Automatic annotation (TrEMBL):
Homodimer. It comes from Caballeronia grimmiae. The gene is bioF. Pathway: Cofactor biosynthesis; biotin biosynthesis. It is an enzyme of class 2 (transferase). This is 8-amino-7-oxononanoate synthase. Residues 46-389 form the Aminotransferase class I/classII large domain. Catalyzes the decarboxylative condensation of pimeloyl-[acyl-carrier protein] and L-alanine to produce 8-amino-7-oxononanoate (AON), [acyl-carrier protein], and carbon dioxide.
Amino acid sequence: MTRSSDALFDALKQGLADIDARGLRRRRRTIDGANSAHMTVDGRAMIGFASNDYLGLAAHEAIRAALAEGASRYGAGSGGSHLLGGHSRAHAQLEDDLAAFSGGFVDDPRALYFSTGYMANLAVLTTLAGRGTLVFPDALNHASLIDGVRLSRAQTQIYPHADIDALDAMLDASRDETATKLIVTDSVFSMDGDIAPLARLVDVAEKYGAWLVVDDAHGFGVLGPQGRGALSACALRSPHLVYVGTLGKAAGVAGAFVCADATVIEWLVQRARPYIFTTASPPAVAHAVSASVKIIASDEGDQRRAHLASLIETTRAMLKRTRWLPVESRTAVQPLVIGGNDETVALAAALDAQGLWVPAIRPPTVPSGTSRLRISLSAAHTADDLARLDHALTTL
């Protein structure tokens, strides 16, 4: 390498050394076979508490069969972007299914399917917002929402987490009454497991004529009647709502969707760069998601949600018996705040040695001094799985 190349690589190596010194190096794990509550990780049998497969559908036989059927019917890839030959009957059917399933919050619902939740959030925020727009995001929003707001180049005022009075005051003080306004929030916050005050947010959005963008990544399939999502759980209806649901978590497959009034969705089709300028996901994946939505809405889906609810209550009680600080959560995300990076990593390693995969979450994902274990529950877990985790946490 040349001297200039040496300098470039030296800067990266120093940056990596700094990450190591702060105990923040991230490492990937390799799973053999299907992702489930019980899996082989790096060659070892493990009970996994790291996955967002909340209903245990990722390895469901009917969904596997639908994926195979989709590949047989539609091939391996889409062949193009949605607007240039890549939009298959499987994509169209899935969008109809999702609009019917989760679109009860507007009179004329329509859904748009994306390859990932990150893309969906970027699309919504960069298309509905721009220079001259006022955006009001919750302080604890997911990185994809943060990045979407930044890329929109809108004027941004971040409101304190779930503080609706502060948000109301910010909107009231905004002087440009002609500017488009967006309120942006997660439904279930992924690091704390708490749920946004959605009913009050709708009231504020309607009061000030603002869009309310809700990212229901951790609520779709789990919350509400038949798992229809956080908006359904709160029985909310408003034309101001723009709903984003993720399909790689509770649905067990991949992708995401935006659901809103048909006019909003048509605007995204015409203007959303993350939708227009990318190859459509394989139609087989969309075909498998449609099968998943049917299971989510079925009696089997109700049974899985009931089992998950039981696991959540057991875990809440269990974490209160430990010497660390549980975060109040009634969702499948159950955080246990340890504090320092080194202690958190050491505890995760001790659990790993006992065959329990519980990830350590550290800054910058969470604030400094609040490093934690994040226990993600699945309907595929058993009471025995939780008993093993309970024993480990109370004896370490």
